[in-house]
Amino acid sequence: MSAAAVVTASNLWSAHKADLAALGERARARSLAPRRGIDFSSNDYLAMSSSPRLAMAVQDAIARGVPLGSGGSRLLRGNDPEHEALEEEAAAFFGSEAALFFSAGYAANVALLSTLPQRGDLIVYDELVHASMHEGLRLTRASAVAAAHNDAQSFEDTVREWRSRGGTGRVWLAFESLYSMDGDCAPVADLVAVAERHDAIVLIDEAHATGVFGRDGRGLADGLDGRADIIVLRTCGKTLGCEGALVCGPRVVRDFLINRGRPFIFSTAPSPLVAAAVREAIRMLKDEPARRDRLHALIRHAETALAPLDVRPTGSQILPLVLGDDARTMVVAERLQRAGFDVRGIRPPTVPQGTSRLRISLTLNATPADVDALAHALEECLA
Ligand SMILES: Cc1ncc(COP(=O)(O)O)c(C=O)c1O
After folding, report:
1. Dist CA 189 CA 206 (whole Å)
2. Residue of 212, 235, 344 with the most ligand 1 atoms within 8 Å of its CB, for mutation
3. Mean pLDDT per 10-residue section of the chain, whose length is 383 residues
4. Is the peptide bond before 352 cis (omega within 30 degrees of 0)?
5. Nearest CA owner, ligand 1 atom 8
């Protein structure tokens, strides 16, 4: 290669390099780190990802001839009996009319929000919803307006204002039932009541509540499935210990996503082996309630142990400690990591400006004694 060509090649990436350098200067640069230390950061809340039972389910599926790869889109040759069996079992377990399996919750949220609401509709979404919902909102033909976090009145006011300005389409309400960076729960019943007053359709992202709350781990939307106005997203990469996501809702929603949902149509179907594992994970929710009991005991233990350090109890397995400053957050997280605790710092844009935080996630990969040790180390790091 000539010298001129080398110079040109290095210029090719100058804007990207400058952007990365600027992120570094603002303590915002991200990099991949190996998994190490006691788990206080994963979403493997019931420690199912490493359970012998799920490993055995995959082994059994291999023995039955279930393939690793699906070989194509579900609409072509990628549709495997494992996908359909999973969808039927998930719908039966959660009580929805139908379910559709996606390769990721991200793709499912993009599909839901970009596909279902139509031009002339209004989507009112909680201001703290996950990036994947925002991605879907960027693609929607409907109008989208943020409501104040967990504030049913703000949802109500937003709908009324839109109607008073002449909005005539369908209203959609979109929110998470348990917020991944704050650990707080949505006022689901109040939000559903808002929806009922306005004939709205509700999209509930149960990514972090599935498996942890509700009867047999059916989540915080437990009891709402089966209604014509409710769609629930349940991810399979968190408590269920696998990957992918299930959209649970009316059959027309499943049919519509199969016909119009581009992230579903134009993507290779998820691994049939993973579908087999998710089937087993759903059975585990029902068969192994002791896991949930242990997690809830750990939550109560952690709330007490961490309270003196200003870690606000949330009633959930996600305990944030907001430190505010990006750099300080990362320094404290790094110290904890060096002390053997896998606690991660979370910075904007994942969380709002000025609210950088340690996200302490409680899973059965940690014991009450681990929590006590973390509290001790955190006290030293914050001193
Ligand atoms: C609330 C929420 N929704 C959706 C997703 C995306 O799910 P997945 O990781 O399966 O793509 C996440 C992932 O972190 C999430 O926290």
Report:
1. 14
2. 235
3. 61 95 90 92 98 98 98 97 98 98 98 98 98 98 98 98 97 98 98 98 98 98 98 98 98 98 98 98 98 98 96 96 94 96 94 95 98 97 90
4. no
5. 105
